[in-house]
Amino acid sequence: MLLIVGLGNPGAKYANNRHNIGFMAVDRLADEHGFSAPKSKFSGSVREGFIDKTKVLILKPMTFMNESGRSVGAAAQFYKLPQEEFKDKIFVFHDELDLEAGKFRMKFGGGIAGHNGLRSIKSHMGAEFWRARMGIGHPGRKEQVHAHVLSDFAKSDKDWVDNLLDACASSADLLVVGEIDKFQTKVTRLAPAPTAKSKRNT
């Protein structure tokens, strides 16, 4: 079984925020693979399904970003996902300030780069889990970060955001079989960041 988590904030006012791209990613994945309708569990919104005959649980914590770990920890404990197996069982999709908009990278463990959702998960069950880092770019100044992450994507972002969400959803079978490098490679090939596309065309 896999636990795939998307980070974000609940409520319509946050739905299109940059900070909610993790929610968007797991929604797209669940829709693509015909998962069940959402239901409330583990202080979150849960959808269940199968990818290549492997059971997958999609979890969107409804605790607000800063308390995400309470929801993720409850799900991991319920399904008895032991610490030593986190590497292959738990994947967290989230926004990443330190990557240019549209860039995508997988990372296992390590620092949390000031992300409050990751900090909360780490505090509940350690840092040993995969992060699917979805670049939203940095506004340039530290004091602008809060407004940047809690603002909606611009209309000009729509194409790359949709492409990235689709690429993550269509490549999810590689997560199931533990081909993490291939997953990252396929996603970046299907949805190159806008900066990467512009460089290729020059």
What does this structure look like?
- 41% of the residues are buried.
- Strand 2 and strand 3 form a beta hairpin.
- The model is unreliable at 198-202 (pLDDT under 50).
- This protein has a single domain, classed as Rossmann fold.
- With 202 residues, the protein is of the alpha/beta class.
- It contains 9 helices and 7 strands.
The tally of beta strands, per DSSP, is 7
CATH 4th-level superfamily: Peptidyl-tRNA hydrolase
Count of alpha and pi helical runs = 9
Structural class by helix and strand composition: alpha/beta
Strand coverage percent: 15-25%
| CATH architecture term | 3-Layer(aba) Sandwich
The percent of residues in helical segments reads 25-40%
Mean pLDDT level: 92
Rg, rounded, reads 16 Å
Order of secondary-structure elements: EHEEEHHEEHEHHHHH
Spans with pLDDT under 50 lasting ≥5 residues? Answer: 198-202
Summarize the structure.
With 202 residues, this protein is an alpha/beta fold. Helix content is 38%, strand content 21%.
Features:
alpha/beta; seven-stranded mixed beta sheet; 9 helices; 7 strands; disordered C terminus
What is the topology?
Elements lengths: L1 E5 L14 H12 L6 E3 L2 E8 L2 E8 L6 H11 L7 H4 E7 L7 E5 L7 H10 L4 E6 L9 H5 L8 H13 L2 H4 L3 H11 L3 H7 L2
Parallel strand pairs: 1-4, 1-5, 5-7
Antiparallel strand pairs: 2-3, 3-4, 6-7
Helix pairs in contact: 1-6, 2-4, 6-8
